[in-house]
Amino acid sequence: MKANISKGARKGWAWILAALMVVSVIIPTTISTAKAEVGTVQFNGTAQGWLESAYAEWSIDKEADGYTAYIKKASQSDSAYARIDNELIRRYKSYYRVDAMGLSAGDYVIRVVPVKNGKEVTAKAKVTDVLKVSSYDRSGFAFSSESKYKTGSGAYNEDGTLKSDSIVLYVTNDNAKTVKAGIMEGKGEKEYTGLQTIIDAYTKSASKGVETRALDVRVIGCLTDSGMDKFSSSSEGVQIKGASAYSNINMTFEGVGEDASISGFGFLLRNAGNVEMRNLSILNFMDDGISLDTANCNVWIHNVDLYYGKVGGDADQAKGDGSIDIKGDSQYITVSYVHFYDSGKCSLCGMKSESGPNYITYHHNWFDHSDSRHARVRTMSVHMYNNYYDGNAKYGVGSTMGSSVYVENNYFRNCKYPMLSSNQGSDALGEGTFSGENGGIIKAYGNEIVGATGIIYANAASVTGEAANAATFDAYLAASAGEKVPSSYKTVAGGTTYDNFDTTKDLGVKAGSLVAAKDVPALVTSSKGAGSLGGGVIDWKFSDEDDTAYAVDKDLKAAVTNYKNTELVAVGGTNANIVTPEPSTDETTKATEAETKTTEKATTSKATEKETKTTEKATTSKATEATKVTEKETTGAGSDTKSSYDKTRALF
């Protein structure tokens, strides 16, 4: 029997069939989308070893919820992989990046693992090529065997690894007011909140020998004055102050990666011993960029980029005041591998009241079109070697008030007056540079001078054509490094002699640190030369016309004043509770920082434009605000002790 279906019914069935066909297409497509897999990690070609650190960058996979990262020495088995701290993974607009810190010299590999639905997708992990890590150059008076602490490595061991049981603070512009740490005091551990507040409590306790753990402050992104909880120095900014002269502070203040910076303030060190500052750009500082004010020792400032500070009240403060000033009987200090960008007054070294002896080293610094005070030395005994004087409009080294300065194997390119002593030699030919102060004696050896206006030696004709003048001179030209300056050579004003400290004291110069002057420009301007990782947050190149100019560079000033990092999006690789197997102990103890540390749960959230360095605010949860301190010190009463990964592990 044949069924009769009306025309209307047939049309209705046609619509139903069409709908079913659409569903049949949509459902498989939806299922396919739901089953989209995380791709294999794709490195973007940027994975390298640097100085006691290594890093890798990779493309963003929208299917991955986040990432974990691990590191081991290249020669070790996979069981040696140790997890890198969650905060050391950051998301930028177009890529992720991880930095492993606290590595001894050697060859390493980094393994990056995607995370999906709270689990690591190990099948899609990727390992970098071998990354060669070098050591920092621990040289100069901060490392002299005759100094109080014999080191300026702060929270680090001499092989570059972090000291066991160190307190580690990860600080962003968003959590600087809320970051927490437990500090040991006489009645036990007490929790403090806010970066300056923590530093104050720590330095007070550490200098009394109560808190014995080292403190490592690690800055992520741009930390601004408005982001700070408070400043203990109204004139400089962050204060690091011991309870009494030359207190053992045991502290490092450093930046993470190539975009860590400080904007709107600087640092005051007072009564501080064994303090290290490294891998930072400092911009728009208040008075001085870094001021070693009173009774500091074994301080090591290195691999820092210093830009313009805020305009001061005096005519010579248009670029800010001193970039790094050392005074008040500070001794056994090393300033090395610092890049000074057009500083007006690079470094005052000594005041008028020092009793001494105070020994200071400047080496492998890049005085990049900075004007003067490289350094301006009063009263102290200073060793300056392998510095690159690059287009300096006023003068290089200035010696006054009975100081002794050993200027060795430096390269002077278009530095107007490479060396000056107050009221004599080249300085006496003009109106005088040093406010009429008494002179000091400079011993020169092994330097290369190109394009200078003039230099007068006491005992030899100069490359600029001046005849020897034993009565009024800029420097004594030594025939060998070990030659002593005869006591018959005296300053015109003051009648002081050279103290020959360089032939009697341990200068702390390690083997391989001192190179020939001709090799200095290439070394200092290399990727492992002066400045922070990546060469500073503002990549600035000067022209030959800038060699003789000492006015403020308006374009550079605008770049410094308006600096913001618009690339950093979020801090933290994952907020999943990944439990990491403990690495093989025998293989990783030397390769990693062997440390037990409670790691509080780090969250990843978008950054907003409130942070100067980033257009989107990189936030962390309250657990992260306690930021990565050791298992003993992290949490106070009521704190969230849940770890985002295994508590017992190697720390990077």
Description:
By secondary structure, this protein is mainly β. The chain is built from seven helices and 41 strands. It has an 18-stranded parallel beta sheet that branches. Residues 1-34 and 585-651 have low confidence and may be disordered. It starts with 6 loop residues before the first helix and ends with a strand. The chain is globular and about 80 Å long.
Summarize the structure.
This protein has 7 helices and 41 strands. The protein is mainly β and 652 residues long. Mean pLDDT is 87; it is low at 1-34 and 585-651.
Q: Biggest sheet, open or closed, and with what strands and sense?
A: 18 strands, parallel
Note the beta-strand portion: 25-35%
The total count of helices amounts to 7
Q: Which structural class do you get from the secondary structure elements? A: mainly beta
List keywords for this structure.
globular; disordered C terminus; 10% helix; 32% strand; mainly beta; 652 residues; single chain; 18-stranded parallel beta sheet
Write the layout of secondary structure elements.
Elements: H1 7-34, E1 43-49, E2 53-59, E3 66-73, E4 82-83, E5 89-92, E6 95-101, E7 106-116, E8 119-120, E9 126-127, E10 131-133, E11 167-171, E12 180-185, E13 188-193, H2 195-207, E14 215-219, E15 222-224, E16 237-241, E17 247-255, E18 261-263, E19 266-270, E20 272-283, E21 290-294, E22 297-306, E23 324-326, E24 331-336, E25 339-341, E26 345-349, E27 359-363, E28 366-368, E29 372-378, E30 381-385, E31 388-392, E32 397-400, E33 404-408, E34 411-415, E35 419-421, H3 425-428, E36 441-445, E37 448-450, E38 476-477, H4 520-524, H5 554-561, E39 568-571, H6 585-588, E40 593-596, H7 622-625, E41 648-651
